[in-house]
Amino acid sequence: MEFSWDLVINAIVTGVVLGGFYASVAIGVTIAFGMLDIVNIAHPAFMIAGAYLAFWGSEKFGFDPFVSIAVFAPSGYLFGRAFYRAYHFFFERRGDESLQGLAFFFGILFIVEIGIVLIFGVDYRSITQPYLESTIGVGFVSVPWRMLVPFLVGLGMLGSVYLYLSRTFTGRTILAVSQDVEALRLIGANPIRAKEIAFGIAVATAIVAGVLLIIIQPVEPSITREYIGRAFAICVLGGIASIPGTLVASLILGVAEALTTTFYGPSWSPAVSFGLLLLTLIFRPAGIFGR
Amino acid sequence: MSGQALSAPELRKPAPVSGRSRTGLAIVLIGVVLLAATMVLGSHIGEYYYLATYTILQFIVLGTAWNILGGYGGYVNFGTAGFFAIGCYTTIILNKIFPMPLLFEMLVAAATAGVVGLGTGYLTLRLRGVFFSIATLALAIVLQTLIVNWSFVGGARGVYVIRPAVSGIFVSYAQFLVVLMLGLAIFAVVVAWAVEKSWIGIGLAAIRDDEAAAETSGVPSLRLKLIATTMSGALMGMAGAPFPYYVTYVDPATAFGLAIAVNSIAMPLVGGTATWWGPVVGAILLGSAQQILTVTISSAANLFIVGVLLVVFVTVAPRGVVGIVRGWKRGRK
Amino acid sequence: MIAKILEATGVTKRFDGFAALTSVDFTLLKGERVGLIGPNGSGKSTFVNCLTGILAPDDGSIIFDGNDITKTPAWLRARRGLARTYQIPRPFRGMTVQENIEVPLRFAVGHTSAGTISEAAQVILDQVGLGEKADLSPKGLTQVELRKLELGRALAAQPKVLIADEVMAGLSESEVDEILALLNRLNAEGISILLIEHIMRAVMLFAQRIVVIVAGSKIADGLPDEVMQQEDVERAYLGE
Question: Is the per-residue pLDDT at A279 higher than 90?
Fold first, then answer.
């Protein structure tokens, strides 16, 4: 593949747009893992479930993806809260071993992925909307709407979460929990409830990310595992609990993948995120904005 | 404060330790008996049963190997499939450039997988346990991507492997594979048992319970974790080396497959991670169940059930079958 | 001139811009009993973590028994005779009380025979008063028993220096006296002790010398009565 600036610039633009979407995937991990110390490797499974919910909504009820978001994200939030209560009851209280916790989330990840295979099969599923079909072009750079929309929604979601966490009382309680559970108890706030709400938000963002995913591309169940790498690579590279970090890391990953795909082909792209993750863990585990 | 030494059962000694080398000897003896039985039964058993037994034995090895680092040390390896695949592809590569007997291929696989385990461990075991786990997942996917893009080993299309002729004492190649895997299983279990009772096992247990306290008690935690990771990886590689001859067609999707990934974690957790016989029980129970069920339901449904069992056990019976048995024994006293 | 057993010079530790310790100098002589006090969050635990090797200081050096251990891993320091207890007891919960003691016997001291290890463990258990609880799980121990287990484990490493990190927190008066008596016995046997404590009564009774750390810096180092009279020490504890 010969080198040309056109290709590079297009790749970078694509990468940035993709990065915005990736941010929506990773924000849930930043909250659950970065702030609450819950190793939710099942997060991509919740995302894929969101994608398939959007598919089902579209097939069965003719839901536009935004309608799907409006319907399924709140359910995801409630489910997330219930899920955290169960997780807290069975695992966090025991306090013994993270072995069990990790195995638990791995099991959940697995069940969701195989469950989707059983219900929907392994074929690619997609949804189409007429207004997503067109492309926006500036000079020699063009970006399809089906990618631009997730980029914008992804950024919007990141911004909303950031505002929520820094401006509302519950949000600030969540941030405080991530830093010092003891101090929180001393001032009488309930860390469990804060964590529950935070986890609910994390799952809701996963559902939204899933809907965005199926807007960008057709989905099939095994995509789940690729996204473990992406989500955690972004979270770690960004500094674990930093939202600005999540954004910057998402953009870096998006561009890295886009450049790799352009010059080496798409079959190498799963390795990019995991490779980036390994490199970060080895050389700078605290990430860019990390403590 | 002092006074009665009696106390509630749940506060008693967690694990009775008895008959040290007797156990090791018993394992070997049972293994030899099973080996003899396999040879004697010969062609009275259908090929299907040999292959089903092979699968279960393979999982005994994988589960036992996983448990040396996971159960004993508390470090969860999500990338068992990666190490298993290293074994598979070592055989495939050797076949193409430097053919040798399977036994030697297994040794090369052990060395390769062991070195990869050591390397991964060296790079990530200084970090929190969860980062090691994610790194093992990353490793498996990176390896898979490399293989998929490497046409020498067949890339995504896979390769066909021809079974060599088997020596006259075996009635079929399938029987030979079972005997080989049985030997490996005995070896793996004896290694796990020996590690558990040795200073390595005790050190790993301390690390699992509280790594910082272990360090300040003199336990060289990085060293022990590396030993465990290397052993674990090497055994997994050895389990993968005969696989190409078992399936005769290998592609990355199978070698790096979901079945390997989930079973190698589910079996020790269901069986019990605290001791060497937990993964064995787990492999036999879950392995047999899957073999029986595959006939009636799809393999996806099969794996789904394994996943559910994993979640159920880890939630309500975290000590696995081992825990249940020990609790029952304590109750009877 | 009594030899120094532990000497820290210029120890500095930062956490992403926040200076937890700033150029702390500290000396412990052979056989000495030193108390380390300071308000919560002043950096005492960080200092202990640097001394024992759990954290690596950003600057400074640590010399133990004549050897520079600044880059030595924690487990090797334990083997050389630097032992500690933890503020919040951290027993090995999957093992019995005796097995807890056996870990340092095996790893810090290097015994290999099961018989020797078992006997030595029982001796230590008796020394700290846990002889009857040898076969129990740590989950069944009371707070003071857990503290004794911490001390027992530190003791089993045959330490030259024992760092007791808030080992008396939350205990009753008589329990504090019990632990003090134990520490005094250990000191009489030749172990140099660094006692980090909030319970001033215990520190005044026990320490030959007191060091005060406030906001990451050492502000006082001397005889107990003199140090406690110092203005800045009073201020740190009583406020302006």
Answer: no
| Structure confidence at residue A186 (pLDDT) | 65
What fold characterizes domain C4-90+159-238? Rossmann fold (3.40.50)
With a cut of 90, say whether residue B91 has pLDDT above it. yes
CA–CA distance, B213 with B221 (Å, rounded to integer): 10
**In the predicted structure, residue A33 carries a pLDDT above the cut 70:** yes
pLDDT at C186: 92
- Residue C171 in this model has a pLDDT that exceeds 90: no
Q: What is the ipTM of this complex?
A: 0.91
Residues of C with Cβ-Cβ distance to B318 under 8 angstroms: none
Q: What is the domain partition of chain C in residue ranges?
A: 4-90+159-238
What count of residues does chain C have? 240
Q: Give the separation between CA B184 and CA A190, rounded to whole angstroms.
A: 53
Write out chain B residues lying below 8 Å of A274, CB-based.
137-139, 141-142
Dihedral-angle region of residue C203 (phi above 0 means left; psi in -120 to 50 means alpha; beta otherwise): alpha
Is the distance from CB of C92 to CB of C103 less than 8 angstroms? yes
User: B318 and A41: CB-CB below 8 Å?
Assistant: no
Q: Is B205 on the interface with A (CB under 8 A)?
A: no
Structure pTM? 0.90
In chain A, residues with a C-beta closer than 8 Å to the C-beta of B145 are 267-268, 270-271
Q: Do B266 and A107 touch (CB under 8 A)?
A: yes
Place of tokens 């059962």: B9
List C24's β-bridge partners, or say none.
C11
User: Which has the higher per-residue pLDDT, C178 or B4?
Assistant: C178
Residue B134: closest CA among A29, A204, A81, A18: A29
Minimal-distance CA residue of chain B relative to C162: B216
**Is any Cβ of chain A less than 8 angstroms from the Cβ of B204?**
no
Q: Cβ contact (<8 Å) for C15 and A291? A: yes
Give the domain A5-283 fold. ABC transporter involved in vitamin B12 uptake, BtuC (1.10.3470)
Q: Tell if the CB–CB gap between A281 and B269 is shorter than 8 Å.
A: no
Q: What is the pLDDT of residues B136-154, one digit of tens each?
A: 888 888 899 889 889 888 8
Give the pLDDT score at A182.
59
Mean pLDDT on B194-203: 95
**Closest residue in chain C to residue A289, using alpha carbons only:** C16
- Neighbours of B (≥3 Cβ pairs closer than 8 A)? A, C
**For residue C93, what is the nearest residue in chain A, using CA coordinates?**
A96
Backbone angles phi, psi at B2, to 5 degrees: -85, -155
The model's pLDDT over A81-113, given as tens digits with 9 standing for 90+, comes to: 999 999 988 887 766 567 888 899 999 999 999
Which of B82, B76, B148, B144 has the alpha carbon at shortest distance from B113?
B82
DSSP β-bridge partners for residue A136: A143
Q: Which residue in the block uniquely carries the two structure tokens 């199926």? A: A214
Nearest to residue C96, comparing CAs of B13, B204, B206, B17?
A: B13
Asked if C132 lies within 8 A of B5 by C-beta distance, the reply is yes
Which chains are within 8 Å of A by 3+ CB pairs? B, C
